[in-house]
Amino acid sequence: MSPSSPAARKWRLGLVCSLSSLLLPAESSAQTAPPTTLDPIEVAPSTSSRPKPAARSSNTAAASRSRARPATAATAGAPRAAASGASGSASPTLNATTPGGTGSRLNLTPLQTPASVEIITAQTIAERGQHNVLDAVTQNAAGFIATPAPGNGGLSFSTRGFAGSNSVMTLYDGTRFYIGSGTLTFPYDTWSTQRIEVLRGPASVLYGEGAIGGVINVVPKKPQGTPYNEAEVSLDSNLTRRLSVDSTGPINPNVSYRINATGNMSDGWVDRDKTSNAVVSAAVRVQASENLAFTLSEDYGDRSPSRYFGTPLINGQIQDALRFKNYNASDSAIRYQDSWTQFKTEWDVADGIKVNNTLYYLTSARHWRDIENYTFNPKTQLIDRTSYLEIFHDQKQAGNRMDATFSGHIFGLENRFVTGFDVNHIEFFHTNNSSVPSIPTNSSVAPYVFDPGSFFVTKSPTTPGFNANVNQYALFVEDRLSLTDQLSLVTGVRYDRPEVDRTDYKTPTNSFETTLSGTSWRAGIVYEPIKNLAFYGQYAVGVDPVGNIISLAASQKTFQLSTGKQTEFGVKQSFLGGRGEWTLAGYQIVKNNLLIADPNAPTGPALQVGQQSSRGVEASVGLALNDGWRIDTNVALLQAKYDNNSQLVSGKLVSYAGNVPINVPQKVANVWLTWDFAPNWSVYGGVQMVGAMYSDLANTQLRPGYNVVNGGIRWKPDDRTTVAFRVYNLFDKVYAVTSNGTGQWLLGMPRTAELSVNVKF
Known about the structure:
Elements: H1 6-20, H2 60-68, E1 116-121, H3 122-127, H4 133-138, E2 144-146, E3 157-159, E4 162-163, E5 168-172, E6 175-176, E7 193-200, H5 204-207, E8 214-220, E9 228-236, E10 241-252, E11 255-266, E12 275-289, E13 292-304, E14 311-312, E15 333-350, E16 353-377, E17 382-410, E18 413-432, E19 443-445, E20 463-482, E21 487-504, E22 512-515, E23 518-530, E24 533-544, E25 562-575, E26 580-596, E27 607-624, E28 629-644, E29 646-649, E30 652-655, E31 667-678, E32 681-690, E33 693-694, E34 702-703, E35 706-718, E36 721-728, E37 736-739, E38 744-747, E39 752-760
């Protein structure tokens, strides 16, 4: 039976339709979940497949610019069909010779960038069954761990000794959504992702304050000029039913589209924890002329995530009998609704001059109604529950980012220069049930068999808390000067000026206005003695806020941005025609102007004189071998500490100098091995290794490290169909991903098996 025959098409479509019934809910959710729709899927355009205009311009210069236009990422136009192909023919994870837009605005490859940059393709993500951004980043990129929690939206990372949204920034298609109250909820699912670009180390020179640890840029799929359709259905042992679709192609010679969607519902792996996730992504690209293109895109996410806030420790340890217990209220609820609308313009003005402009409007509506803290009481042998919290976030962000790139020569030397601006207006409205004075609410339940009770026993009303209006302005410049054919100088500078106007409804005297400012810059050099072997060095200065800018507290209004300085040296190489890659980097980061208690007046205002530092080594190797073998591995070793950190504890001043920062492991590593052992058959396995880390400043609560093994097998009955069986946490390791307080750990998912079928048509 031919893969393209009508019988084969009917067989594939029939298989998807029959398995799609698995997505029907077994029963209605106990939470106030939204109707489940479909999540986004990935689609991205390739330069070669760009639609041609019906009438070609008579301007020969414009035509030559169009033909000479540098290609974007080599994988940008590769359909997800490749993800099911023979892994032995796939390039390693690092993608050192693939141009990207995260490490630089100059469209440099990782080899040309004087920084630690990785590009994780959709093919790698799909092969390894990584359905969310957290897994895709932490299991593939060097040195990242996840620090998710229901309170931070599940999108929080730690790298190079710095943790949380104030220090590790997440972008979507190069656009930043400002963090309110430590929470970011989009992007989450990877189906709509074409690639994830990762930059480690200070990146404020590119994206502004809040990126001293690094940046994660999730790049969505783009419209293509070649028709392509795909669907995937899966079911796992937690009764997670997932359906995803993707379609792209031309509407006419000048217009192409992409629409993808993904949705899932799950019973969850802890008691009473039904979840749902729906994402829809759509884009239309118009090639108005050979040198002018417009793209309008809309991404929408509606998620009711896990309401599991963690497991309480008993005598400092996790008890196996409590592993699947959920101590939240029976009527608890969490819901995130995110909308990202962007209009992009790409204009080749003249030879060597290109202008890009992105106009965007982003919104996020979030709701929590939960009991969040659980502590074992040794006297009563009960679990004491506190923090009955109801919170609403209503956030809107409108902005525009424009840059102009100039390519030419200076004194006979090849030079590429980009300059631009970024302006936006943010409105953040925070509603909560924290009253003044607050009315404490608590309850106690038996550890093993209990009635979860209702949230609405609380007497504390949910009322408006505060509103913040932020206007942010930024100017940036970046340059790459080729001193010789082997030696280049890459520099950049950015100036940020956010203005904050906060209105406090519960304590009007805490209302304030303030203006912050920060200048970030970097200078780096890249030496390529032979083709595809590069040595580099860099010095970078970045800035972080002492708290999230748009939810800055009155006690922080007089403080300026913290400053981080990094020195980094490294070497990168791509060899064997791109089938092999390796990197080695060493760095030191010092972050100062942190808040500490005043030793002369511990109960008074804090001083902005604290300091934190880290130094480390990171290495990555990717190699596609003969006989269908492929290996990807990376390791990050670091030493991080507080150099100057004193806090007021129970009325006494305590110094934490020399202690390790919270949620910072000293060792992180990943190893992946894939083998195409027979025609149309492939097996893979990977282990994620995370070292121990502390949950408190005093370093008395050590959270054990963990090794988690994932693996699977894939079969291609024909060129357009892939059947995969995967097992996550193969050895059923009990481990803590992060902590919600010192006596409560959020555990990782237990052993879970998944069966999926992917069809291209």
